[in-house]
Model the fold of this input.
Amino acid sequence: MALEGHSQAADANGKPGVTFRKPNVDLTTNHPQTTAAASATAPDADNVGTPAITFSNNSPSQGDMDDLAEKRQQLLGEVRYSKAKLDAAQKQFALQTAAGDLDKAEHLNQEVKDWQARYSSSKAQLEEVERQLADVAQSTKTTPGEEVVVPGENLEVFVTEDPSFNGIYQVRRGGYIIMPQVGRIAVAGKSLSAAEAAVKRALQSSQLHNASVMIERKQGADLENGPLIYLYGEFREPRPWHIPSGITPTLVNVILSSGGVTDKADLTRVRVMRIAASKSVVEEVNVAKILEGGGLTSDLSLGEGDVITIPAGPSNLVYVTGNVAHQGSFPLKQGERVSAYAAILQNGGFARFADLRKVYVLRALPDGTKAKLPVDIAAIKKGQRPDVQLQSNDILVVPEKFWSF
Done:
């Protein structure tokens, strides 16, 4: 008998009873007609087999309780459904056997075995989930005298696998902290170990394959009370930034008034994360274009709890090496034009045995390879060839003459 979307269980008189609908769950038990249990003798309905459901975390934390509770509800529906189908199949088998229809009775006997296997499997999974729920409830109980996290205090978070998540987070009035690229994480009312588990779970669900999290209370943290905006990445002072009273901050205003950014900052890809309709929304803004006069109307208004992340960009350095007076590198500012000859002069000029005709530039290409661009300084000085304009991460090489003596 093929699985149906719903079926009616019959009572002893053959009258249809309560309608049971199959819950939308994904179990490891196969379709009744294809399960390996179809060829086995029907097990006792009360004989619980090995649970088919497994969890990646052998010791679930308090943060897993929601998932476990949801699985329990799904499995409760599956147990009721498979038990009703089993009862209906057993009654139909008894009726066809009494009527002497051996072909139908044999088919129904197989169906009884299939539903029996499915019922036993789902019942075993349900018991396993209930056991894990009990373990979680026991493990998340705080010991006498153990303090729980409360709104208003500051937590210092350490993530071994990605230090960019390290920092001091204030527990907001709603009982949560806000982490960049993650969003809100509920920690209030939890012990420190349970809060660590909640942060770990949030990181592993969206950012990291594995996360080792440690949390310490930050006593006397220098954080101002009031509405905050959180600064991360290549700020000179990455920290919670207090919104002055009566001011509606903008992205450019916050960046400038917070102390500015580092030399590594990529202002073309500044990200702002905010919470909208209980979901994290990320906007990317080209702040560099705004600062260059691209129109302040494109500046972004900010609000309490917003998170600004400024990523690190390319190194924006030019490297000079070989037979020059001073080898080294210098920053190439956005829009700045520096030629190869000028770069050599900036580094003290040529060394004694420099080969002016064999100078070249190594330039990285988008496919990961490097191009070698010849730079004949002797011809450039005579006006016979144009100089080469350098780009970020170019390597300018001045070789030595073959005959140095």
